[in-house]
Amino acid sequence: MSKNEFNHRQALAMGGGLMTGLGLGFFLLQTMGGLAFVGSTIGGIGLLISANIK
């Protein structure tokens, strides 16, 4: 398997991390404000990046 080959588990981790961050952000948006929403989204993107690092 080459290093450039796309892995389906990476795709699931990327999508799941981003969706988890967005979902958590929408729940925190009402109570904590917009900064918590942005922070949750960045956290989800952080999970997305960490899924690609081996």
Write the layout of secondary structure elements.
Blueprint: H1 8-32, H2 34-52
Helix pairs in contact: 1-2
Proportion of beta-strand residues: under 5%
Give the helix proportion (percent range): over 70%
Using only CA atoms, what is the Rg?
Answer: 13 Å
**Mean pLDDT reading:** 77
Name the structural class.
mainly alpha
What is the total number of structural domains? 1
How can the largest sheet be summarized?
A: none
**Number of DSSP-assigned strands:** 0
Structural description of this entry:
- Helices cover 81% and strands 0% of the residues.
- It is mainly α and 54 residues long.
- It has one domain.
- α1 packs antiparallel against α2.
- The radius of gyration is 13 Å and the shape is elongated.
Provide a concise account of the structure shown:
The chain is mainly alpha-helical and about 55 residues long. It is built from two helices and no strands.
Task: Record keyword descriptors for this entry.
single chain; 54 residues; mainly alpha; 2 helices; 0% strand; elongated
